[in-house]
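Ops channel
N.P.: pipeline sanity check, posting one input/output pair.
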């Protein structure tokens, strides 16, 4: 029987006072929770809830094989009537169901599949994006809500009669959406609709290429200056990390990767323990389009990573480099990098117009240009596929632009 040590120094077996169909499974579940970084007191609290669940199942003669989400909700309701339910109890039950399914002890969860015509169409379009267009899941995840919104607005709960689609339907939807979103998101809406309409044309669901009728969104590539911070503010932002805490040490390493190597937030999230080549002093970057590229690792970046990996990162099963400091120890969420940047900006007392992870990427490029780097060199560091993508930074060097500007007609000589 597994014994855990509480914070007060006392010990207790995880199966103490537990009977019923779950008794033989609590030890393995508790061991998994400990591996995920949960404190012994938390593990005990979770096992107490599951011991209560086991007794509840036993009294009703419900075997382990019949345990599912419905039974879990019934148990929660019974605890609520006894005023003994806690906020985290449902999450504990769901964790335990996932553990049992991983072990093969209960049946997989029943998938609730939406079989409406619109849902089937969207699933077919999703498969098209992956298999024929080769898009990443993150890109598809941005397209699908737009298409779902359009179909709901145009057809509601009815079967979508795609042959009745007209350019005016598409234009009205775009105009309504543009009133509530930014221009860049408006471009995404038009791009998603064009992709969906070409899918429909390829399938024969429509006979006219409606994608050609969609208007463009006026958001020119070189129409604005890239948002950036001057070097002294970047230095101040990095200095504000509290490196005496595990989270501060992790965040400092993340911010250095953004500020020194110009990585995108998603590229930092995707890093694994296998992406470091310490002998060559290089780092493998999993960039856009599933490309793998190598970048030289600056000395301060390498030192920050060593400190984080050696002294801070908890031991866990995931190969991701950057993980949660609190249980469960797993990879960071998609929005975590931007949140880390925003918190650092707040600590530094800065107030830039743009506060996302790309701010440090733009700041690096702008600083390199002002120190004499060519646009080609900057594009190579930022891993731009097309030179035109880097040209936006040419507008930052105002002094150089004045030297090549033509005199104003009729102006002073």
């Amino acid at each position: 029987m597994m014994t855990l040590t509480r914070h007060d120094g006392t010990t207790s077996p995880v199966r103490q006072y537990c009977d019923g169909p779950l008794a033989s499974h609590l030890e393995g579940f508790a061991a998994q929770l400990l591996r995920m970084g949960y404190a012994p007191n938390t593990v005990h609290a979770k096992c107490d809830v599951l011991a209560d669940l086991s007794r509840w199942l036993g009294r009703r003669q419900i075997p382990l094989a019949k345990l599912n989400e419905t039974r879990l909700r019934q148990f929660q309701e019974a605890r609520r009537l006894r005023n003994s339910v806690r906020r985290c109890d449902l999450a504990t039950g769901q964790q335990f169901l996932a553990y049992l399914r991983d072990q093969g002890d209960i049946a997989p969860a029943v998938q609730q599949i939406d079989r409406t015509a619109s849902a089937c169409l969207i699933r077919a379009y999703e498969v098209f994006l992956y298999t024929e267009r080769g898009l990443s899941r993150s890109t598809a995840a941005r397209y699908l809500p737009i298409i779902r919104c359009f179909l709901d607005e145009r057809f509601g709960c009815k079967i979508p009669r795609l042959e009745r689609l007209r350019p005016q339907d598409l234009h009205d939807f775009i105009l309504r959406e543009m009133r509530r979103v930014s221009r860049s998101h408006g471009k995404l809406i038009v791009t998603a609709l064009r992709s969906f309409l070409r899918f429909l044309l390829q399938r024969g669901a429509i006979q006219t290429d409606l994608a050609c009728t969609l208007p463009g969104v006026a958001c020119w590539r070189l129409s604005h200056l890239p948002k950036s911070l001057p070097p002294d503010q970047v230095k101040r932002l990095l200095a504000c990390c509290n490196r005496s805490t595990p989270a501060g040490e992790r965040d400092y390493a993340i911010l250095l990767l953004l500020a020194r190597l110009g990585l995108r937030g998603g590229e930092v999230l995707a890093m694994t323990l296998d992406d470091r080549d310490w002998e060559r002093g290089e780092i493998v970057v999993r960039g856009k389009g599933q490309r793998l590229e190598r970048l030289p690792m600056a000395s301060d970046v390498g030192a920050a990573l060593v400190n984080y990996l050696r002294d801070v990162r908890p031991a866990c099963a995931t190969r991701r480099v950057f993980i949660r400091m609190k249980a469960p120890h797993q990879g960071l969420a998609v929005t975590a990098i931007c949140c880390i940047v925003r918190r650092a900006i707040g600590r530094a007392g800065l107030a830039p117009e743009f506060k996302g992870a790309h701010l440090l990427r733009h700041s690096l490029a702008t600083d390199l240009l002002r120190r004499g780097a060519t646009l080609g060199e900057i594009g190579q560091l930022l891993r731009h596929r097309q030179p035109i993508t880097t040209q936006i930074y040419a507008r930052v060097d105002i002094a150089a632009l004045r030297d090549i500007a033509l005199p104003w007609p009729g102006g002073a000589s």
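N.P.: looks fine end to end. The chain has three domains: 3-103, 117-213, 231-400.
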